[in-house]
Amino acid sequence: MKCAGMMRCIVVAGLALMLLSGRGAADVATDEALQKRVEELEEMVRELSSRLEKMTHERAAEQAAVSEQQEVLTQLSAQVQEMEDSVALSPDSWVNRFTLGGYGEFHGNFDEGSSGDQFDIHRFVLYLGYDFNDWIKFRSETEIEHAFVSSESDGELALEQAYFDFLLSDLVNVRMGRVLTPLGIINMKHEPPAFYGVERPSFDRVIIPTTWSSDGVGIFGNLTPSLTYEAYVVGGLDGSEFDALNGIRGGRIKERPSLNDVAVTGRLDYYPFAQRSARLGQWLRLGASTYLGGLDNGNAGSDPDINGDIQIYSADFEYTISKFDFRGVVAFENIDGAREIGNGTASEIFGWYLEAAYHFWPDSWKTGKLEKSDAAAFVRYDDFDTQYGMPSGVERDPAGDRNEWTFGLSFYLTPSLVLKADYQIRDSSAGDVENAFNLGLGWQF
């Protein structure tokens, strides 16, 4: 009998031995029965051979698919490696060391009375930073105000910040260059989404004139996880530019400040909930700041020969609980030599404001395009007097004593883009201040 394959041959040989053995043991089987049994076994062998052949083909197909997948993975791995080797994607590339950002605000101002209404591209600001490594970082802020800069316009192009941070430890780090004078709230956080109201509080225009930059060097860090600090030695103010209604605002030197009469300035911030969770989403910051310096400083070394100095003491707070926000600032300024300065400069300036806001936007409305939206209603009261205390023999200008109520709404399309509207009720001891309605769009990126 001819074998069809190795397995079949084995089976048939084994069967033959069984048959021969069976004949010798008991002569009860017939040739027909044996033949039938052989045919059944041959059919089984053919079926097993067919299955084996099918399995062999399937295994070959699987191996081909695996090989194809391995080839694709090899190609992808090569592409990933090529991307990792790319200069643009390397963490050490100069491209990835840059940071870019900015903020801006459009205003529509409508004063009651005879004043002209206006649309104002109030600010357009670009941030630019560069990380030289993980501990030396450069940051800058360049601002255009009122859209157009010329000798006939109120527009201004200014470098408001440009400093290096040398990050040495959590406790002590060094900052050098043009920094924000660390007084109050708005001077430190003046991006439009960070404050309520179209315009910044009037307190931050004449009491702590915002934005106020100073050139110098100092240190900053964390004294504890709950307590942070900043302290700088900086160029001082030009006392000859102080006046009765704008206070110390004109004394800021924006080009090349003199170092004739330097100042020291600094602040402490305490965060009571920094190391523990608080109910109802509470967050609290308590701050205190100061500025102490001489007034005989001018631009590019042209000092005005002012024999005087200034001391500023300020305290502020920010508090959030549930859907409510509260903040406030108070500041007192003492000016020695105010009589010699003239211009109606006061010997004492004082001001404060309190603000409360309620986030009323329902969570059920935060869907689709408005998924990250929010809205808040706020009220703020400013009280400030740039003629709070006068030198002997100098008459007080009642127009320096002012206050205002501001009521408004802020609608955040996203956390960094806000539509604003407010109404301001203004008053002064001189009684000649107009109320105002303001609209605004502010952004930060």
Write a brief structural summary.
By secondary structure, the chain is α+β, with helices and mostly antiparallel strands.
Write the element-wise H/E pattern from the N-terminal end onward: HHEEEEEHEEEEEEHEEEEE
Radius of gyration: 40 Å
In what range is the share of β-strand residues? 35-45%
Low-confidence regions: 22-26
Per CATH, what is the topology of the largest domain? Porin
Signal peptide: 1-26
Coiled coil: 31-86
Keywords: Coiled coil, Signal
Protein name: Porin
Overview of this protein structure:
Helix 1 runs antiparallel to helix 2. This protein has helices at 6-25, 31-85, 203-206, 338-341, and strands spanning 98-111, 118-131, 136-145, 156-166, 173-180, 213-224, 227-234, 263-270, 283-294, 309-321, 324-336, 348-359, 374-389, 401-414, 417-428, 436-444. The protein is of the alpha+beta class and 445 residues long. Helices cover 19% and strands 42% of the residues. The chain folds into two domains: 6-85; 95-444, Porin (Beta Barrel). A hairpin with a 7-residue loop joins strand 15 (417-428) and strand 16. It is elongated, with a radius of gyration of 40 Å. The chain has a 16-stranded antiparallel barrel with strand order 1-2-3-4-5-6-7-8-9-10-11-12-13-14-15-16.
Features:
elongated; 19% helix; Porin; 445 residues; alpha+beta; single chain; 16-stranded antiparallel β-barrel; coiled coil
How would the blueprint of this fold be written?
Blueprint: H1 6-25, H2 31-85, E1 98-111, E2 118-131, E3 136-145, E4 156-166, E5 173-180, H3 203-206, E6 213-224, E7 227-234, E8 263-270, E9 283-294, E10 309-321, E11 324-336, H4 338-341, E12 348-359, E13 374-389, E14 401-414, E15 417-428, E16 436-444
Antiparallel strand pairs: 1-2, 1-16, 2-3, 3-4, 4-5, 5-6, 6-7, 7-8, 8-9, 9-10, 10-11, 11-12, 12-13, 13-14, 14-15, 15-16
Helix pairs in contact: 1-2
